[in-house]
């Protein structure tokens, strides 16, 4: 395995971990929000903030996939 193939494999592994982490974090925020549905708004805001982090990680992993595709297509 050449050096560039190893780097690409590592980056795709990191992208997969980031995507899985995003799913777990978003699910955790959803559960936290739904379990506190009867409480005042301040207590539910924690679940919304966690879901925002999950969406941010998901967008980051999608952008990383696009960047990796560009690098593979144009530079390798």
Give a written overview of the molecule.
By secondary structure, the protein is mainly α. The chain has one domain (18-71). It has two helices and no strands. It has helices spanning 3-35, 41-75. The two termini are 14 Å apart.
Task: Give keywords.
mainly alpha, 2 helices, 76 residues, elongated
Short description:
This protein has 76 residues and is an all-alpha fold. It has helices at residues 3-35, 41-75.
Please state the overall shape, judged from the principal axes of the Cα atoms. elongated
Low-pLDDT segments: none
Distance between the termini: 14 Å
Number of strands: 0
Order of helices and strands: HH
Largest sheet, in brief, is: none
Number of domains: 1
Structural class assignment: mainly alpha
Residues in helices, as a percent range: over 70%
Rg of Cα set: 17 Å
- Share of residues in strands: under 5%
Question: How many separate helices?
Answer: 2
The multimeric state of the shown protein is single chain
Averaging pLDDT over every residue, what do you get? 89
